[in-house]
């Protein structure tokens, strides 16, 4: 039966590359989560919008589910194919389609790797400012599908802010050209914005027109050691008020231990419970002096115990590695992840409550947290104790996530800040969205994808 | 029959203020367009979210159409009630509900006048940067419904960029709390963004959480006279590359004539076909010198014939009045308006074609254009010749708009840059959106407003 369907697809698109070898099914059937066993029907690797559209039409007729697939660096299971779906990989669609110097936009195919987008922008003396550690593997289409955030949100916002236009194959097979690069376009519903963050459940992004901007002025990178949690928000408020921040990231001593064990170099001696890596404009002496003055003020107030300013690009990179290397250093332990957000103003109260909850509920597991404090976004990684079986561990974590979701709901927060809902958090969607809103989400999905062929089971618990 | 319905509404909400006097029906039944005869059923002036919700539920049960109503400064007929609708005016919902210093957000009721939003932000040393000439009358809810743009878009973007959260009563009567002020929230479809620019056809915005930002550095205002149209984009490119622009607005000699006749003061002698008002950062001597150098370079190149830099705040205001006074100076003539946009890079080619079209098709009417060249947004105002009857004039203009829409379509532009589609441009929606996209828009509308009670006939030609 599934063989017949694939044969039909091959007949329609004789040039389409289709993979069915077990190693390919496993490789393309999973993302950076490792909780599900990949079991796709096949992998399709189209090279054009027309092929994508033909595949979606075929899928509608043959009732085959499609999992849109980019770099598969996702952490929410959004690109997992564990139920006989066709994986539609964009990895052969990686071309730059155009650059406009007046509009300052770059148009690319959706499979393009984020690092290559950065490189292409730099060639024109401009930057695409969304950035995070997975830049060498993740695709721009995947970034758009999850409205990816990262380490520069405090300065530049999320992916959403940088999308001037999208070309999308909707679930119903129609090709949509959304906004076409316009700065102003008050002509009805902005489906470009609706598609950003829709996790492949409304349409498949095939091309994107990205806004670019001027490179930031020269910057400095500073590492700070903090004596306690309350100091975090005080240092943030002080630094934000006095410096032009490009990034303000924090992590705990637990996180530091793992990243040091993974080969990073210690930059501050002694034991400190919290650390901050911050980057700020330092174009001239005035700004550099301001940074020193602010650091000294924080030291005098007792909000900071120690600190170091990078004296070279190499040292700046070494300081950044302490923060950016965390996820990779934990990966072999396959941590259970939470990626949560509250309003920035709600961070202190929420942090206290959250920390108490985690200490109480994970008495034996190591809990590592870090994140983008200036965006109200915290990443929590829980490591499985060696003597606890995988299934029991996940069950325990899910129990805690339920309690965390309740806490978030009371603080008006979100169960997914930047990873998306996917499979991993779909049971908790109702902690962030009211029933009335979820009902409308389902309704909108039905409009775009009436047969429910795009990424079924993702975002919503049942389809 | 309609009397029965109103009696039913009064029974349900005895405290609700309802107006039915002919003067009120006329006053609240129209916006700044004057093409339709107001004929609402009544005017409801709720004071709370609960009252708005009760009215929408009543309207669903009684099959009464609702026209959401703010400052009624709209130019597209989006707030016109000409078919027995209930006008739901937000003008008694104008309170500030909260300010958060850490999040830097201001939460207000949707009926608040834009000028009062500006004032409230200033009280906290911050600004809400969306701004335009109607600031003293328009409401923030109306700004959101049309994704209003204005004179600072080049620096700050449209209204869309400044919305951290929305409280909305959907067409189905449900209350939605969208995004709740979060910086990061990848938990499904961003309906906040869908509501912005939806012209009251999906839900009624009742509260908004607005992002605020630091005031810009001290600025200077410059008026430039230009010898021809080609110089426009050259001067823009030069100024954008070398200065930190806050605004870059252009207008023609025709526009100048009207605004001078309306009481503004001439600032540059002689006859020049085009003028630009630009405002840019001038925080220190370096920036002020850069502005002079750029001006001199433009003069040497022959792109600028003359210019003046404001030497005081009063003179800056006088220069701004030359641009901001245009709409008001034309209002007594009830011009036919187009508000169109193309990509910035497409402006030169489009301008040439458009100018030829207007010259050919309006041989006798005076055509005045001006706009936001840095956003690709042009406003065209056509004045009725004294010897042409109103109906014949509009017929002629609609004919030209059809041709203009074709031109726009070829250049990938939009038939509405910032005014919205409303009644005025609904016949031209398909020049900007493909049939497939319009079909999805109708589908989404049906999800939010299954009975079609919210602003029927607006945006879409038939409901």
From TrEMBL, chains A, B:
Cofactors, names only: FAD
InterPro entries: FAD-bd_oxidored_4_C (IPR004113), FAD-bd_PCMH (IPR016166), FAD-bd_PCMH-like_sf (IPR036318), FAD-bd_PCMH_sub2 (IPR016169), FAD-linked_Oxase-like_C (IPR016164), FAD-oxidored/transferase_4 (IPR051264), Oxid_FAD_bind_N (IPR006094), Vanillyl_alc_oxidase_C-sub2 (IPR016171)
Alphabetically ordered keywords of this record: FAD, Flavoprotein, Oxidoreductase
GO biological process: respiratory electron transport chain
Superkingdom assignment: Bacteria
Any one Pfam family match given in the protein's UniProt record, by short name: FAD-oxidase_C
Stated family: Belongs to the FAD-binding oxidoreductase/transferase type 4 family.
Annotated protein name in UniProt: FAD-binding oxidoreductase
Organism annotation: Rhodanobacter lindaniclasticus
